């Protein structure tokens, strides 16, 4: 009986260890795609739906990167109207070893915020951008076998900044992680039993005064990796003693979405509608756009920039059945990539064009 109990505990231990292997949470095959909907959050973490954008990631390859064998994931962000036609413009890097998932920290997502802090010229001898650039490296953010609710330090670095009217202020920057209790998460792809992590940046002055805390909660699903990521927004008003006026830090709620559909799906019905490629393309400053309407009704043809901002409305009226062509003059716009989208009933089609001046 005793031997049977020992064997049972051994099998349970082996099963738990296998389940916690980090590689089991990352997709097994290249070509895997993630489609996310990202909703910015205000200073009290209420959604700012008007600023919603979309993100697409793709598991492209496995190769050495900065000293580790990395899963390389190109990424792009944009509006729903343009994201399918946009090129991938950056990459994310992940690596798995045993029960640990590594992520390469890059300042890509916070570079604008760091530049904003530096532009305030609050310090004479310190650049937030330079400091965080120096921290770009691999970090073992996701410790799948870590005890639940136990904080682990990923990085701790001390520095001193000089603030006019205050003097030298010693600062401690601490980056830590914590595995939270596992959680079943509902997504557009179904329910997943996720590992849940809290990543936190904390800035402390004089070793006792907490100046800033940034939290990032992440849900990781087997064979799917990150399926949900929430950074709460906050209003920071406790730095006035350092001469720093109150400011807001926006948050972000990122989740899997099924809003993004392929152009082929969008154009599958009805077949007698069509949007032609503009010509010439590239163009300067005028181009021709043709389209076909198979059923009378309201038709819109709009132009968007690469960020999804509407820059021109070419058609916005009732149209009868027929074939149409128009000339658009873009002399008022700068060179770049633009997208034009036709909507007619249930038919939606988007194409890319390039303005070269």
* CATH fold annotation of the largest domain: YmcC-like fold
Provide the low-confidence segments as ranges.
Answer: 5-18, 263-270
Which of globular, elongated, flat, extended, rod-shaped describes the shape?
Answer: globular
Strand content: over 45%
Q: How many angstroms separate the termini? A: 84 Å
SSE run: HEEEEEEHHEEEEEEEEEHEEEEEEE
Q: What is the number of E strands?
A: 22
Q: Tell me the number of structural domains.
A: 2
Index terms:
globular; mainly beta; Immunoglobulin-like; 10% helix; 4-stranded antiparallel β-sheet; YmcC-like fold; 13-stranded antiparallel β-sheet; 357 residues; 4 helices
Please provide a written account of the structure:
- By secondary structure, the chain is mostly beta strands.
- It folds into two domains: 2-256, YmcC-like fold, CATH 2.40.360; 263-355, Sandwich (Immunoglobulin-like), CATH 2.60.40.1930.
- It contains four helices and 22 strands.
- Strands 1, 2, 3, 4, 5, 6, 7, 8, 9, 10, 11, 12 and 15 form a 13-stranded antiparallel beta sheet that branches. It has a four-stranded antiparallel beta sheet with strand order 19-18-21-22, with no helix packed on it.
- The longest helix has 18 residues, at 2-19.
- The radius of gyration is 25 Å and the shape is globular.
- The model is unreliable at 5-18 and 263-270 (pLDDT under 50).
């Amino acid at each position: 009986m005793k031997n049977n109990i020992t064997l049972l505990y051994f099998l349970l231990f082996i099963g738990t260890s296998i389940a916690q292997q980090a590689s089991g949470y990352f997709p097994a095959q290249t070509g895997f795609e993630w489609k996310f909907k990202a909703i910015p959050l205000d200073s009290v973490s209420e959604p700012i739906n008007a600023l919603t954008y979309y993100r697409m990631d793709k598991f492209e390859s496995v190769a050495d990167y900065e000293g580790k064998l990395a899963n390389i994931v190109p990424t792009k962000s944009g509006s729903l109207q343009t994201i399918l036609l946009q090129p991938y413009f950056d990459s994310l890097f992940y690596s798995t070893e045993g029960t640990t998932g590594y992520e390469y920290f890059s300042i890509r997502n916070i570079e604008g915020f760091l530049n904003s802090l530096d532009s305030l010229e609050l310090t004479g001898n310190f650049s937030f951008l330079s400091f965080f650039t120096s921290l770009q490296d691999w970090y073992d953010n996701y410790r799948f076998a870590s005890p639940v609710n136990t904080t682990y330090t990923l990085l701790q670095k001390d520095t001193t900044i000089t603030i006019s009217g205050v003097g030298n202020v010693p600062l401690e920057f601490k980056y830590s992680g914590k595995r939270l209790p596992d959680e079943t998460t509902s997504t557009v792809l179904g329910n997943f039993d996720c590992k849940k992590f809290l990543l936190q940046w904390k800035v402390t002055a004089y070793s006792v005064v907490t100046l800033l805390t940034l939290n990032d909660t992440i849900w990781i699903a087997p064979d799917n990796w990150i399926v949900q990521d929430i950074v709460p927004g906050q209003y920071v008003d406790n730095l006035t003693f350092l001469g720093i006026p109150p400011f807001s830090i926006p948050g972000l709620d990122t989740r899997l979405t099924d809003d993004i559909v392929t152009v082929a799906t969008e154009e599958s019905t009805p077949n007698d509608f069509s949007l032609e490629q503009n010509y010439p393309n590239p163009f300067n400053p005028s181009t021709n756009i043709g389209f076909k309407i198979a059923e009378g009704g309201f038709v819109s043809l709009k132009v968007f920039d690469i960020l999804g901002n509407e820059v021109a409305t070419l058609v916005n009226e009732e149209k009868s059945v027929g074939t149409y062509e128009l000339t658009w003059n873009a002399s008022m716009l700068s060179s770049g990539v633009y997208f034009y989208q036709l909507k007619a009933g249930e038919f939606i089609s988007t194409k890319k064009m390039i303005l070269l001046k």
